[in-house]
Design brief:
9 strands, single chain, two-stranded antiparallel ribbon, alpha+beta, 28% strand
Length: 172
């Protein structure tokens, strides 16, 4: 299967990322107690306060934070959208000594367990040379296992595993 990252530049591609983001945020709510489902059935970051968003588009804007200043990519598998990746390169939002953060990464269920995520992650890291960081929620063991494996393979084991295994840092 051919897996490529397509930079989201036009309205259609940006909408594709946003549509995947909504499902991603629902999925993340099972791991992050700060993400709640409001009375409209939409996931939201609870510190922002209720009632929160009332429509899908409001939900995306409400939970978007700094993503509009990050690099957004649609993950394409054999020409079909299969997920998204968001990479932050804004130094104001990164830890000292870090050039890039793989901020959000999502593969839709239809395309999981086919190595698409591994190929997409490698493609994302190959986009930029520098010092990278990847975070996972402590309560999300599948993500922790996935990222430690992917980063370990990508770096041939030459990476730092920080914060009890919830953050990986490496240079490519």
């Amino acid at each position: 299967m051919e897996v490529i990252l397509s930079r989201a530049k036009n309205e259609k591609e940006l909408k594709t990322v946003q549509n995947f983001f909504l499902d991603y945020f629902y999925t993340m709510s099972q791991y992050d107690p700060q993400i709640i489902i409001n009375s409209y059935g939409l996931p939201m970051w609870s510190p922002f306060g209720l009632p929160g968003p009332t429509t899908s588009q409001e939900c995306i804007r409400f939970n978007w934070w700094i993503r509009d200043i990050c690099l957004q990519y649609v993950i394409m598998a054999d020409g079909q959208p299969a997920g998204f990746v968001i990479i932050c390169a804004d130094q104001a939002h990164l830890a000292p000594g870090v050039d890039y953060e793989l901020m959000d990464f999502y593969i839709t269920p239809k395309y999981r367990r086919q190595k698409i995520g591994r190929l997409a992650a490698r493609a994302a890291f190959d986009l930029f040379q520098g010092r990278w960081q990847v975070f996972q929620l402590e309560q999300n063991p599948p993500a922790r296992t996935f990222w430690q494996s992917v980063v370990g393979e990508y770096t041939n084991g030459n990476y730092e595993n920080l914060d009890g295994g919830t953050q990986q840092r490496f240079q490519n």
